[in-house]
Amino acid sequence: MNSSPFKKYELKKFYATIGFKQSEVEFIADNLDNYYNEWIEKKIDKKTGEYKKYKDGTVKERIIRPSLKELKRIQQRIKDKILIPIDLPTNVHGGVKRRSNITNAKPHQGNKFQFTTDLQEFYPNITSKRVYDTFLELGFSTHFAHWLTKLTTWKYELPQGTPTSTHIANLVFLGTDMELIELCNKNNLTYTRYVDDLTFSSQQDFSHLLNEILEIVTSNHFKLSYRKTQYKGNQLITGVNVFLHKIDAPKKIIDKAKLEIDNPPSNKPYTNYLENIRKTNRPK
Fold first, then answer.
1. Based on the number of CB atoms within 10 Å of its own CB, is 47 exposed (0-12), middle (13-18) or buried (19 or more)?
2. What pLDDT, on the 0 to 100 scale, is given for residue 44?
């Protein structure tokens, strides 16, 4: 299916889908360096508010690479027209409409045993080739997959900070998700993922399955942050405290909400966030 007429048809379909002319897309693709920004951001520990550090004291950093101008608009079209319509399992919560860190934590309420782990360098670990191969696996033609990859990756990897990156990361991890879901279904475990945060829980001790869970992730060529790998009850899951009978915000959020008591309704972000968490505990 690599004949010239088929290629022309596929490219015409691609340009029509994103709503940009061929000449515009090709110019942007030939000048990608002009359509990205780049800066280094120091990582902050959500629990302490301090900078995260390696054992030698060096501060941990991440590279943020947001897209700019017309490329950002093209990526938004790709996201809306091509990526969002692709169904994802209900276990996936990051970057999915009407799902959040709260919906990610809620399914684990009431489970005594909780296991959390974190994917290390999630976006940089996803190469352009891996993105291209994922699009092929999803049924896109080589031509369509080529342009999708060209317009959503930069410097041979998935850039952090663009409209499409989280959706594409979800798709690349989808095969791993399905393996984890199959294992969890066989063993009565609850599994959710919020971007690079993986959570498993159960009423029963499942410590004997931890190595198998980690093996599924690493065998699919993803890296794990073992510092963030914990097996215990009542954990902070994607920023939410999960207990047997309820979920709640951590103390620092509750304290900040108290300081907003005299603010106008339009200026109460912590209060609104706290309410979104606590309303899940009310009887339906």
1. exposed
2. 76
**Residue-level pLDDT at 279:** 94
What are the DSSP calls for 238-280, one per residue?
TTEEE-SS-EE--HHHHHHHHTTTTS-GGG-HHHHHHHHHHGG
Query: How far apart are alpha carbons 241 and 60 in whole angstroms?
Result: 25
Most confident of the ranges 52-56, 163-167, 232-236: 163-167
Judge whether 260 and 271 are in contact, CB under 8 Å. yes
Q: What is the pLDDT of residue 178?
A: 97
* Residues 6 or more apart whose Cβ sits within 8 Å of residue 2: 142
For the stretch 248-259, pLDDT in tens is 999 999 999 999
Q: What number is the average pLDDT over the span 226-245?
A: 88
In order of 48, 207, 242, the CA distances from 255 in angstroms are: 15, 35, 18
CB within 8 Å of 147: residues ≥ 6 apart: 11, 14, 25, 29
E strand segments, the chain: 39-42, 61-64, 113-120, 190-194, 197-202, 223-232, 236-237, 240-242, 247-248
* Band of pLDDT at residue 234, cut at 50, 70 and 90: confident
Asked if residues 158 and 152 have their Cβ atoms less than 8 Å apart, the reply is: yes
Question: Within 10 Å of residue 203's Cβ, how many Cβ atoms?
Answer: 12
